[in-house]
Amino acid sequence: MRVLFAGTPVVAVPSLDALVAAGFDVVAVLTRPDAPLGRKRVLTPSPVAVRAAELGLPVIRAARLDAAAIASIEAVQPDIAGIVAYGGIVPPSALTVPRFGWVNLHFSLLPAWRGAAPVQRSIIAGDDITGAVTFQLEAGLDTGPIFGTLTETVGAADTSGELLARLSHSGAVLLAQTLSAIDAGRAAPQAQSGEISLAPKLTLEDGQLDWRQPALAIGRRARGVSPEPGAWTLLAGQRIKLAPPALRPDVTGLGPGTVELHGKSVLVGTGSHAVELTQIQPAGKKMMAAADWARGVASLESVVFE
């Protein structure tokens, strides 16, 4: 079976590796164009493009699937396309190019969390269980019939980065199994059923912590937005980044946003009990241990996060 693989970030790399290891004829890799990274804005190929080059696979770079990109896909004559976090919409004119269509690996239990940030939204919402599915890509947003499913427990301390890394590896196996079943004529996709929820892409504003909320909700949000866009708060009008805090149900009575030093622990009040800061990045500085930051504050008693 001739396979086109489409993907861009590091979480898509295990799926590319899995398809190659399973013996599929990966005829080309579709990925986003090189992007400027770092302070010097150096043009850098995507992780999938880097891995494709290491594997000696042809790469099609396209920010969107216009006529030229579709012509490049048609030229390699794929039987099927596997797609994992490509980062662009596949238009109807491209969906019909491979004879078996496009199979998407999505990191949620559809129809829950349709959209660009399913793992992040799942953690923020407090889900205990999430997972991944393979489904037939169609014109609707993550609406196609499902081929296969796997489940994954959301750990109490999981960040979205950690959970997504696990799902990227288990999901890679699922994608290879799904394409094998389609190749053998054994695939039987089932229509989605259940409650629909949406997972739009995170913005910088999604990372702001509201200290009036309960500590559990604050912790979930901080873990859900970690590593990107990152949790943050305001101090004297300046934005400072925070690593996910630890829950401290043994400490109550602190007003929301009020910062206090208890022994060597830097605590912040919430709408319920306190949380303990682990790391903090003041404006213009590097991330540091919260205790080191507290030692450099002239009067911690007057510090209140906004």
From TrEMBL:
Record's catalysed reaction(s): L-methionyl-tRNA(fMet) + (6R)-10-formyltetrahydrofolate = N-formyl-L-methionyl-tRNA(fMet) + (6S)-5,6,7,8-tetrahydrofolate + H(+)
Q: Which GO terms describe its molecular function?
A: methionyl-tRNA formyltransferase activity
Q: Which residues form the Formyl transferase C-terminal domain?
A: 201-296
Keyword DNA repair found: no
Source superkingdom = Bacteria
Which E.C. number(s) belong to this protein?
Answer: 2.1.2.9
- Keywords for this protein: Protein biosynthesis, Transferase
Q: Where is the Formyl transferase N-terminal domain?
A: 2-177
Known InterPro entries for this protein?
A: Fmt (IPR005794), Formyl_trans_C (IPR005793), Formyl_transf_N (IPR002376), Formyl_transf_N_sf (IPR036477), Formyl_transferase-like_C_sf (IPR011034), Met-tRNA-FMT_C (IPR044135), Met-tRNA-FMT_N (IPR041711)
- Where does the chain bind (6S)-5,6,7,8-tetrahydrofolate? S108, L109, L110, P111
The record's GO CC annotations read: cytosol
Q: Which NCBIfam families match?
A: fmt (TIGR00460)
Q: What is this protein's function?
A: Attaches a formyl group to the free amino group of methionyl-tRNA(fMet). The formyl group appears to play a dual role in the initiator identity of N-formylmethionyl-tRNA by promoting its recognition by IF2 and preventing the misappropriation of this tRNA by the elongation apparatus.
Family per record? Belongs to the Fmt family.
Q: What is this protein called?
A: Methionyl-tRNA formyltransferase
Q: Which organism is it from?
A: Arthrobacter ulcerisalmonis
At the highest ranks, the source species' classification is: Bacteria, Bacillati, Actinomycetota, Actinomycetes, Micrococcales
